[in-house]
Design brief:
six-stranded mixed beta sheet; single chain; alpha+beta; globular
C-alpha cells in the first residue's frame, strides 16, 4: 500500500500463482517454478497521486520483497504492447514493465511479462 499522512492513496495487489488461478485471474501455462511464482493482479492510485512514480516504487518493493522471501518469478498478464500507459487504462504498457526488468512472453492468448528473480539472484 502507498500511504500519505495516514491515508491509503494506492495499492498493488498480487497473489501466489495457485491462488490467482483459483480466483480466476488469468495466468500463463504451468511452469517449473509454479509454486514460486507471484502473479500481479492490479494497481490503483487516488487520481492526485498518479504519475508521481509511486507505482514504480511499489513494484520495485514487490520485486525486492519477493526475492527476500523465496519467490523466484513474477508474472504480469494482459499487458498492452503500447508505449504509453494510456494505451490500456487498467495498467502499464509493456515498456514500463521492461524498464523494471520484466521480459515479454507470448505463451498465451495475450501478451505477458515475466521477471525471473532467481536469475537476478544468481547474477548478484
Amino acid at each position: 500500500m502507498a500511504w500519505d499522512e495516514g491515508k491509503v492513496v494506492g495499492f498493488l495487489m498480487f497473489f501466489p500463482k495457485p491462488v490467482a488461478r483459483k480466483l480466476g485471474i488469468y495466468t500463463l501455462p504451468a511452469h517449473k517454478l509454479e509454486d514460486k511464482t507471484l502473479v500481479y493482479a492490479c494497481m490503483q492510485f487516488v487520481p492526485a497521486y498518479r504519475g508521481q512514480g509511486l507505482g514504480t516504487r511499489l513494484v520495485e518493493t514487490l520485486i525486492a520483497w519477493a526475492g527476500e522471501h523465496g519467490w523466484w518469478r513474477i508474472e504480469v498478464n494482459n499487458v498492452s504492447s503500447g508505449a504509453q500507459d494510456q494505451d490500456w487504462l487498467w495498467g502499464w504498457g509493456l515498456p514500463k514493465w521492461q524498464r523494471l526488468g520484466l521480459e515479454a512472453v507470448t505463451d498465451g492468448p495475450s501478451l505477458s511479462a515475466v521477471l525471473n528473480i532467481g536469475d537476478r539472484k544468481v547474477r548478484e
